[in-house]
């Protein structure tokens, strides 16, 4: 159960290797969460999640369970959620952090690869988030934290495949949040700006960056006040209020 | 029976969860509901929702609102007892008892609690040092357990189950009615002595020296005063007034009492209204306005016993984030812990304006009952106060080390391990609970969170 000061007991991380996702999980563990489920591809075989699990245990988690999860296997997502519930009981916080950034130039050269990446960044979330929402509705509480991006707030020339997928995800999360209103379950949409991680190593730095840890702190603060939308850093809310109304002719000339 | 899916919180308005709310009118209806809840996500009874945390909510499950439970009210003047349905509020009882010259044995800081809730939380009042808690005055109660049985239990009839139900937070069954002692009074007024206390040590000393002379005592503490004034307060001590002590104007109708509040807080209050600055101003004014020393003032039951009822929906003052109540008890001899917590709150400027200090007397045999001989401090803080979680966790450790405990009816954020250590008789209580509820049909958000 989430307590009065925003701490949770159980966490399901969809995207068990996501740097931002792990930072959030670690932050929630430091705030009192004791049981974590890490869902990712090759969770048990192959690459495994030993390092990730160790990091959470070092932060104080009593249990870390790896669970097999493939974003592309949309038919299997309900079963993943059911398995997580079997392992830790009620899901107090679910962090939806999977997806791929990719390279815009490569996408434009290989439409099929672009479609596959867009599927991982959007389509897989439709089934996963709906499965999570059904569970949260049934248990009458819980927060689904969806990692959106400012890239989806207004899609840019420089990364429009990724941006379009994130725009879809952002819309999905908002709609789901409205659908769950009054059920005790909630959705929190997180919109970070540029976060330097392994995934974004090939992208040049942008103004108003945030570290994975800052995203995690913002999510924890959002859980405490029951926020619906969290921008990281917070100033991006106002930056993008301006960006949204920039004329198209200016917008398309933005350097990145 | 009408049922409704609703979002519920405790009085602190934090951590809402949704449940199906049903209003059983008979014990049989309550039994049927419990049976139905068993295989699902469980059920919990709820009265007026005055527990501050998550004691009377059951996420995804069933909440049995006791408001319509029959039968009503029987006063036995000879035995000095009353029998009332579990959903009856103490406010209603006072309205019905006072004309007969009777009063409740124990009343907390609000009269907007039910008989069922009073037993389930084993509530205490300003007279705890003299009269113990509510459970000590209960003769018997009727309990619907998840096996469908309706049992009558008391201190002499299945005492194990009775004492597990007293302070059991509704987790042993649904209380449908209870008989308890009521005390004779001549008037609805109280005779009060008021003294300002310059610091915490003076309050502790005066209460220790004089509590035996007063039936009711409590000390409001200004938690924002710092330096030499740390822990300064206003001590009020009193007893029910005799008819002859009333001024002529009140003597015509000495038992007059009406349940009403002077003011109410609007439904929406901006966040941050209660901050260090505004509460410091309020506390300083409250302290300055209190008489330095006043004797034998005649006042009403409401202003003396129920300061929390003076302003309706006062919990809304904390804005959308809600409030966290923190109430702990430490044994006599642990005064340094009490002093340490008060100084720390003053040092961080924690904006608390309803902090009260009370001296507890002997407790009841109930394994989960909170009051025990020693000192108790209750305070409330905005739930969104930065650093609140860590601050209160550090207090938990001090309280635990001193052999103290937190009050389950107020808790909304403690860790299961802390509660387990504070209530060493938890396993004994669990055994009784397992006897009447082997499948765990009764559960609440509190029980889930604290793994009771």
Question: Quick recap of the structure?
Answer:
The complex is a heterodimer of chains A (256) and B (452). Chain A has 256 residues and is α/β, with parallel strands linked by helices. Chain A has helices at residues 19-30, 50-59, 77-88, 104-109, 111-139, 160-179, 212-225, 236-243, 248-251, and strands at 10-14, 35-40, 63-68, 93-96, 142-147, 185-192, 229-232.
Brief descriptors of the model:
heterodimer, A: 256 residues, alpha/beta, globular, B: alpha+beta, 14 helices
The DSSP helix count of chain B reads 14
**Biggest interface, residues from each chain:** A-B, 21 and 30 residues
What oligomeric assembly is this protein in?
heterodimer
Instruction: Name the strands of the widest sheet of chain B in spatial order.
Output: 16-12-14-13-19-20-18-21
Largest sheet of chain B: 8 strands, antiparallel
Low-confidence stretches of chain B: none
**H and E order of chain A:** EHEHEHEHHEHEHEHH
Would you report the number of β strands of chain B?
21
Count of strand segments of chain A:
7
Helix-strand makeup class of chain B? alpha+beta
List the topology elements.
The complex is a heterodimer of chains A (256) and B (452).
Chain A: E1 10-14, H1 19-30, E2 35-40, H2 50-59, E3 63-68, H3 77-88, E4 93-96, H4 104-109, H5 111-139, E5 142-147, H6 160-179, E6 185-192, H7 212-225, E7 229-232, H8 236-243, H9 248-251
Parallel strand pairs in A: 1-2, 1-4, 2-3, 4-5, 5-6, 6-7
Helix pairs in contact in A: 1-2, 1-7, 3-5, 5-6
Chain B: E1 3-8, E2 17-22, H1 27-37, E3 43-46, E4 62-65, E5 73-76, E6 81-85, H2 90-97, E7 102-103, H3 115-120, H4 128-131, E8 138-144, E9 150-153, H5 159-165, E10 174-181, E11 183-184, E12 189-197, H6 200-210, E13 216-221, E14 233-240, H7 248-251, E15 263-264, H8 276-289, E16 293-300, H9 301-305, E17 311-312, E18 323-330, H10 335-348, E19 356-360, E20 374-382, H11 388-401, E21 405-406, H12 416-422, H13 426-436, H14 445-450
Parallel strand pairs in B: 2-4, 3-4, 15-17
Antiparallel strand pairs in B: 1-2, 5-6, 6-10, 7-11, 8-9, 8-10, 12-14, 12-16, 13-14, 13-19, 18-20, 18-21, 19-20
